[in-house]
Design brief:
Number of helices: 12
Structural class: alpha/beta
Order of helices and strands: HHHEHEHEHEEEHEEEHEHHEEHHE
CATH architecture of the largest domain: 3-Layer(aba) Sandwich
Radius of gyration: 32 Å
Number of domains: 3
Number of strands: 13
CATH class of the largest domain: Alpha Beta
Helix content: 40-55%
Distance between the termini: 87 Å
Strand content: 15-25%
CATH topology of the largest domain: D-Maltodextrin-Binding Protein, domain 2
CATH superfamily of the largest domain: Periplasmic binding protein-like II
Length: 313
């Protein structure tokens, strides 16, 4: 038998080495993950038995890539947002098809209170929520130690002073009962509205309460109630200061029915809130683009401005 010259042997070894380099690299990554796969054959880093191991390892690599791809699609394909019914749910439904164009399905979950949407966001039951203004978010985050931030201002819902018993402020009598929201930020906001219209005076400060009155010339009895209950309280009180969303749900139209209403330059814009860890994520950026789109703004101006709600962007 003729022995090949040393140069040919060297060339053959080099070619074999180049062919097996990917196999060695792949096996070094996947053998620890699939020990039974590698133990059934001689590991290519020791004795190259070749093609069957490569095929099995390649299949394993594709399997892992498939799992990763599926996980990414499941995670990135759906965005869940918590909202209160009006107008937040309606605005979210306008934004949903815009998000669909970017590959996201918006899952809208409705809440009827101001506490659970933030708790659900904090425990990752939601990806975002849309129901509150910045002072409320900041206060609740501070009180409950929630790591939440706002990422976009969408609209302003002015507070209004409503009544089934009087038509003007001058009809208020000594000792009349006036209901206000009982959460810290909206209560302060309601009391400032009453102060601005000459019904009472308050101490300086951001989160004032009924205990911060400095003057109450009509001796109004201020009744603190959960915000969602205020429209139902109207038969039992002389008047109530009500958030626009709850007033509208009760059939009230702020521009028509409110005796007095906040100015449109109110700082209490409703915002989209997320966990701080996801604030810069592609999903959240897509959410903001959809909710601050020309289509959503046109809807607010066409459908909601006549009801006292104005865009904040």
């Amino acid at each position: 038998m003729t022995v090949p010259p040393p140069v040919f042997i060297a060339r053959a070894a080099a070619i074999q080495s180049r062919r097996e380099a990917p196999l060695i690299l792949l096996s070094s990554v996947l053998c620890p993950l699939f020990p039974r796969l590698c133990s059934a054959y001689t590991c290519p880093t020791v004795n190259h038995t070749g093609t069957s191991i490569m095929k099995r390892l390649a299949f394993a690599a594709l399997f892992l890539l498939g799992l990763a791809s599926s996980a990414w699609t499941a995670e990135g394909g759906n965005l869940s947002i918590g909202v209160t019914p009006f107008p937040h749910a309606e605005i979210a439904r306008i934004a949903a098809p815009l998000l669909a164009r970017e590959g996201y399905t918006l899952v809208i979950r409705e809440f009827n209170d101001y506490v659970q949407p933030n708790l659900a966001l904090a425990d990752k039951s939601l990806d975002a929520n849309f129901f509150q203004h910045v002072p409320y978010l900041d206060n609740m985050s501070r009180e409950r130690k929630l790591d939440l931030v706002w990422v976009a201002k969408i609209h302003i819902e002015p507070l209004g002073f409503y009544s089934q018993k009087i038509k003007t402020l001058s009809e208020l009598k000594k000792g009349d009962r006036v209901a206000v929201p009982n959460d810290p930020t909206n209560e302060a906001r309601a009391l400032r509205l009453l102060e601005k219209n000459g019904l009472l005076s308050l101490k300086p400060g951001e989160l004032v309460t009924v205990r911060d009155l400095t003057a109450n010339p009509r001796e109004l009895k201020l009744v603190e109630l959960e915000a969602a209950q205020l429209p139902r309280s109207l038969p039992d009180v002389t008047a109530a200061v009500i958030n626009t969303n709850f007033a509208t749900e009760a059939g009230l139209i702020p521009s028509r029915d409110a005796i007095v209403i906040e100015d449109r330059d109110s700082p209490y814009a409703n915002v989209i809130a997320v966990r701080s860890s996801s604030a810069e994520s592609p999903e959240v950026k897509a959410l903001v683009r959809a909710f601050q789109s020309p289509e959503v703004k046109a809807y607010i101006e066409r459908e909601l401005v006549p009801r006292g709600i104005v865009p904040a962007y």
